[in-house]
Structure formats: structure tokens, C-alpha cells
Amino acid sequence: MEWIETTIREYCPLSYGKGLPQTKRIYGIYPVYGSNGIVGYHKEPNVTSHGIIIGRKGSVGAIHLSEIPFWAIDTAFYITKESLSELKFTYFLLKTLDLNNMNSDSAVPGLNRDNAHSIKIKIPKLQKDREKIGEYLSTFDQKIELNTQTNQTLEQIAQAIFKHWFIDFAPVHAKANALASGASPEQAELATMASLSGKTLAEITALQHTAPEAYHQLQQTAQAFPSEFVESEMGLVPKGWEYRIAEDLFDIGIGKTPPRKESKWFSTYEKNNIEWISIKDMGNSGIYISNSSEYLTPEAISRFNIRKIPEDSVLLSFKLTIGRISITTKETTTNEAIAHFKTGKSSLTTEFLYCYLKDFDFDNLGNTSSIATAVNSRTIKNMYILYPSEEIQMWFVKKVKNIFKKIKSNTLENEYLTKSRDELLPRLLSGEIEL
């Protein structure tokens, strides 16, 4: 493969986006890109092909790829190529250039086009070779995206089950309403089974013969739900269930930040260090968080007595940005804006707590007009958590355990794919290795 030297100006010149105030946008199918990604949608594009969007103002050097026509606003540049495969090569090439460090305006961060155009680059001489590299690297992103979409669907399924059981109390209502209308206990049980499964009574009866094991499990689950409600501090609750204080159910701790002025405690490298998760990291993850943008040295952990958080703990952001939830995939640490819940103090599981916190109304936690300043560690520890009967907890875990297991597996695969891609990227784009 022959390589040549050129410049950004010669190979992929940057074009200016065009202003499109939100008041002038008419909702449509075309994404509107600003410097930090999609900011809305419009009925028509100003770039009628696929393209690359680069942050010009604000999020300087942020790079986005659109495989459909789009509108680039005036805080962004854009690049087009006739071949989508070559555009993908260009996208990955730009990722290696550190454009985010080319800020030319200290007051309002900005990327100067002339400076960007002057950057020297090395590319394969033949378009087909550029396309081959672009397609190869994009397979990593395609698999990552597929896993991400799968995880989002699986999480929606788990949350829907949780809401049905523990927010709407639908199976309890089904049983109670059936009994109130004069149904026999057996008929009430069938009504509960219908609520749990979404099946008709005829389908449930058929299930007894076509899938007796599934029928028996559904029946046992239905039997475990109570048939009436009682009053509690938090309103009506199924009989035998209760709301309890969070710190009675979980080992709760708060993260810590070493002195920021002393850089020796921090690192951007994982080797020999330990993850140090921020709220921003949580925002960039799905259910499971598998990496962080910064790490703490072992010396920092020891010197400042920073608590290590075990795998499968639940993280909750409670300062500034309230209510981000993640589950750890390895031993980790966090800053002081994040609380962690370690299971084992009660029968409640990681899966249950994650779903509960995702549906929690954090607006009701604070006692002042500003929720961001009202919530503190004591508030978190005194949160009320629903505590169903242990039998119901068991059936819920049986229902969602494999869902969470698959989500975790996909998350860890994405971490591996991302690292593999990022390690290959500079070697492929420098000609060190060839496809």
C-alpha cells in the first residue's frame, strides 16, 4: 500500500455551517448538528449527502459522522466525500489529529479553519485502500452501536417489568379487583397470571399443556403477590411490603476527590491505577459503567483513605446533576458527587435497586427551591426504598437476571472493541500495519 503526504486543505477541506435558530426549525427527518452533536431536527438539510461534522465553536474539534443528509449550523464545520467508505476513513483520520487542542480563542473556544487546513497528513494514495481502511474500522463502531441498541431495548424490558410490579402494583390490583368482584381465589390467581404475562385466560390455560414448567413458574409468581393494600408513610402499599430507609438496606458510601492542585494523585492512564468515576462518565455510560476518563494512583487511594467500591455496586449522582444511575463492572472509586450502594446488608439486589432508582422521583428529595443544593449524603441515606416480600424479590430477580447479565456482557464487549479499535487506529493510519 503506497502512502502520500498531503494537507487537510487538499484532502478534506472544511466548509462552514449555516445558522438555523431553534425558532426557525420545522421538525422533520434531518438531524441538525452543532459543535457537540445533534441539537434537533429540521424538514430539510443544508448538506445533501453524508458528511462529517466538526465542532468550530464551543466543543472545539468534536467529530461526528452522519450517514444521511443533515444541517450543520454555524458553530460547526462539515466535510463531504462522494464515497461513504472514504468518508469513514476521513472520520477516523480526523480522530487522530487532536483537533480539540487547537483552540484559537481563549474567550470563546474556537477552531481556526486556516490552522486546521495547514495540518499535514499521510494517507493511502489509492482511494480503494482508503475505503478498505474506513470500512474495516467502521465494523468496530457498527458492532458497538448494535450492542448499545440491544442494551437499550433490554433495559426498557427490565424497567417495564419493574414498573408493572413495583410502581403500578398491577398484579396486586388484578388479584384484589378480581376478589372484590366476587371471583374465587383460583380465578383471582388466573387474573394475576394474566396481568403478569400479558396473556389471555385462554392462552394461560393452553400454556398449562404446551409449557407446563413456564405455567408453574407463572403460577408461583402470581401466588406470591398479596391481594390487598395497607396504608404506609408513602401511601398505599401491598400488604406485607414496606418502605424502609436506604441505609438500613445497603452499605452506602460517598466518593472523594484528592487535592486537585496536586496532579501526582491523578492519571489519564489505567495501568497500575484505579478508575475514578465522575458524573460525566456516568452520563456517557449505559446501565453498566466500565471505564472512566481519569484514574487515581494507589498512593492517592492510601493517602486520602478513598473507599474502593466493589463490582456490582449501584452508583447515584446526587450533586449538581441529580439522579444518574450506573452499576460498576469492577472495583472502582468515584468523586464526592456520587454515592454508592453496596448490596449484602439486606436481600435487595443490585438489579432491583437500579430499577427502583431509575423510577425514583428525585425532585421530591430536596427541601429548598434548588434541588441541586438541597441533596446531601444524609438525604441519600434517608431515602425510602420499597421492600417487597423476599419471595417476590426472588421472582423478580429470576425474571430479569439474564437481561442484566446480557447487558453487562455487551458492555464489556464494547469496552474491548473500543480499546481494540483505538489501538489499531494510529497503526493503520500511519501505515505501520496493512490490511
From TrEMBL:
GO terms for biological process: DNA restriction-modification system. InterPro entries: Restrct_endonuc_typeI_TRD, Restrct_endonuc_typeI_TRD_sf, Type-I_RS_S_subunit. Pfam families: Methylase_S. It comes from the Bacteria. GO terms for molecular function: DNA binding. Gene3D superfamilies: Bipartite methylase S protein, DNA methylase specificity domains. SUPFAM superfamilies: DNA methylase specificity domain (SSF116734). Keywords: DNA-binding, Restriction system. Residues 2-156, 238-413 form the Type I restriction modification DNA specificity domain. Belongs to the type-I restriction system S methylase family. PANTHER family: TYPE I RESTRICTION ENZYME HINDI SPECIFICITY SUBUNIT (PTHR30408:SF13), TYPE-1 RESTRICTION ENZYME ECOKI SPECIFICITY PROTEIN (PTHR30408). This is Type I restriction modification DNA specificity domain-containing protein.
